[in-house]
Amino acid sequence: MLRLRMCEDALAREYHPADEMRCPVHFCVGQEAVPAALSLLLRADDYLYSHHRSHGYYLAKGAPMNALFAELYGKSTGANAGLAGSQDISYPSRRFFSGAVLAGAAAISAGSALAATLQKTNHVVVAGFGEAATDEGVFWETINYAALAKLPLVLVCENNKYSVFSPQLKRTSSDNISERVATFGIESSTIFGNDAPLVHRTLSAAITRARNGAGPTFVEAYTYRWSGHYGPASDDPMGYREPGELEAWKRNCPIALLEHEIRSKGMLDDAEKAALAREFEAEIQACFQFAKGSPFPVAPNWASLNFASATPEADRLLTDVDVNEFNAHQELVQAKGY
User: Fold this and answer.
1) Is pLDDT larger for residue 19 or for residue 323?
2) What is the pTM of this model?
């Protein structure tokens, strides 16, 4: 959690006034507990899908920090050669994928979980998203099918209360997401998402259930983003937060809560924490040097980015179909029951 916090704070400080990063950035300061737990629980062959607030999940899957920085700077050494940016950053060799489409992480994760079932593998699929994803119809379709097919899927909703500037209770009549999900037959729970040990225990149980063939789990983790919706600048002048709300959540910082706990058990002292901070700071500065010193990508072949040579038939079908190939007089076969 400290590594992620320091990474995000450093990126936020550098974002302006230099203006060298080539994409919008959604920071996850205050929401470190869930990705930290996943970093300890997921195997190399497990899949992790994320929404646009992606950095914590990216690092949780063991993807390199220097490739993250280079991606934000639009450099060829970035995780996606500088072409994806923060919101869509992926690292396929680590089986991590993020995306800006709301609820996309949940829907695509169901496809991966179905593939795991059909291929009889033992890997688990996890999707992380915010509560606004549950405003989308495709989320509930995903929930329904995941329950029906008993997919090896863990759906983690980081409920930070806001969709951009809109509070949850101005978008839905109630905030009982986990209760609604449970009606589909999915194991569901609601937890305080800033309690790192609780998050770890809850996700550990969910991942074990999925790996043992017991089906999907939905975890609603209440947490809070300290930063604005995107970028390093505060968006408090919009007036969407309740007075004192941010300060209250800062008093429940996941890092501070865990630090207090482990210090009380004699597991951390000032010297050890300072050593960690020096280690992470050195890594972060090396990542900045790597990103800033890397070249920009050459102009890509956009066709090859959108059409895969390994699937020629699919590519052919995606092009304009020759009308002569269509048989307007083919026999009509009506399925029984219609």
Assistant:
1) 19
2) 0.90
pLDDT band with cut points at 50, 70 and 90 for residue 174? confident
CATH number of 2-313: 3.40.50.970
Long-range contact set of residues 66-69: C-beta below 8 Å, sequence gap at least 24: 66/286, 66/287, 66/290, 66/291, 67/91, 68/287, 69/11, 69/287, 69/288, 69/290, 69/291
Residue burial 134-150, b: 16+ Cβ < 10 Å; e: rest: bbbeebbebbebbbebb
For residues 52 and 99, is the Cβ–Cβ distance under 8 A?
yes
- Sheet containing 153-159: order of strands: 90-91, 96-98, 47-50, 125-130, 153-159, 217-222, 187-192
Q: Residue 338: pLDDT above 70?
A: no
Six-digit token string for 161: 């209360």
Give the DSSP per-residue string, 42-105.
--TTSEEEE-S--HHHHHHTT--HHHHHHHHTT-TTSTTTTSSTTTT-EEGGGTEEE-SSTTHH
Dihedral angle, C-alpha 37, 38, 40, 41, nearest 10 °: 120
Which residue ranges make up each domain of the chain? Answer: 2-313
pLDDT, residue 235, reads 87
Burial of 302: CB neighbours in 10 Å, binned 0-12, 13-18, 19+ = exposed
